[in-house]
Each structure stands twice: as structure tokens, then as C-alpha cells.
Amino acid sequence: MTLAFDTCLAACSAAVVEDGRVLARRADPMLRGHQERLAPLVAEVMAEAALGFDRLDRVGVTVGPGSFTGLRVGLAFAKGLGAALSIPVVGVGLLEALAEPLAAEAPGTVFAVLDAKRGQVYLQAFAGGAALMAPDALEIGVALARLAELAGHGPATLVGSGAALLAQVLPGARLIAADHADPAAVARLAAVRPPVPPRPLYLRAPDARLPGGKVLGA
Q: Residue 18's beta-bridge partner residues?
């Protein structure tokens, strides 16, 4: 029984999954306010699933890439909940969570792409559910070359907020716009991997700076 949530992008979402079956799932679109919304949302999802927290076996949480503040909110809440319940907390990359629902039905290569702004994208490629590359922050020109290299002449799917930015190099590709991960996908991935303590995935330095010029979270 796995509870998972995602606060990295433009939504606060949570789901409960048992042996791959979704018992409850909710997603509230938002760019800010994840910290205030996450605990009530999790309580609502658990109530919808008619479960007490003592029924949980583990907690899954997205670790990035994404909003620095958002991913820290999710990680802190997940670690606190895991400690309170004495159950493992498992981190899941946001790009792999975006690609997970497509692993069984999308032919060829699946590219999870997020618009990282400043002329960059966050990119990870998959085939048959297996990663073909580590998640990376790339200039758009470099990402276009990587897509052409990995997709070859086979079918391809681009999923995520940056999909349209790279579509030009794969004119026949299927495009799926998504501004957050399915929390059920996060739960399914978290349920089957070793319970290694999660760590945030930073692919580039955060934009925010503290007084005096110190970079927040560097």
C-alpha cells in the first residue's frame, strides 16, 4: 500500500495505490501554495480510499527536477510522514513519472521533456520502460540533437511541458502536454524500488538568491 505525492510543478497531487490498483487520486492545479495544500490533500485522498495511515507500507515522493521550493515541500512532508509511521520513503524522478504511464502502450522511444526556461529543457528518454539516459538539463539545440540520435527513424512520443519545444526534429511524434506527473505513476514506481532515502534531484542551480548574493539551496 503506497501513498505518493508530487509538488514539483504546477499542481499539488496525491494518490494511494495498492498492488498497482489506484484506490484514490487527486490533483489541484497550482503554481504556489503547495505547503499549505499538501497535508489536507493527503488527508482527503486517504479518506477517499477509506484507509487509516497505519495501513500504509511506504511513501513515494517526486524529487525533481522542478520548482526548488515545491520539491523541498514534498520531500520534507514525505520524510516527516515516513518517520511518524516508521515506513520507508522512496524518491521518484519527475521525468520517469511522466513517462511511466506510456511504458506499456507507447511504441518506440518516449521522451519526457520539461520546459526549464532560459533556453533549456529537462530531458530523459525511455524505451520499453527502461531509461536510455540519465535526466539532464540541456540547451534546446543540444536536446534536439539528442532526440534525433535516440529516436532514429522509429516512432516516438514526447510528454511534458517542453514537448512542443522539441517537436520540430520529430515531425511524426505523438505530443502529450503535461504540467505535472500522475501521482499514481509516482506510487507505482515507488512501490517496486529499493527503499533508499530520497534526495532532491537538482539539474541546475536554483534562481533564488538570499541577501548578500548567496544562492538558495546551492
A: 21
One-letter amino acid at 150 equals L
Which amino acid type is present at position 50? Answer: A
Taking a C-beta distance cutoff of 8 angstroms, is the pair 158, 167 a contact? Answer: yes
Q: What is residue 205's predicted lDDT score, i.e. its pLDDT?
A: 66
In 97-159, where do the E strands start and end?
109-117, 120-127, 130-131, 136-139, 156-159
For 79-118, write each residue's pLDDT tens digit: 999 999 999 999 999 999 999 999 878 889 999 999 999 9
Low-confidence residues of the chain: pLDDT under 70: 205-218
Q: Residue 113 is placed in which grid cell?
A: 521533456
Say whether 1 sits in a helix, a strand or coil.
coil
Number of neighbours of residue 155 by Cβ within 10 angstroms: 15
pLDDT of residue 207: 55
Domains of the chain are 2-94+180-191 (3.30.420.40), 95-176 (3.30.420.40)
CB neighbours (10 Å) of residue 56?
18
Give this prediction's pTM. 0.90
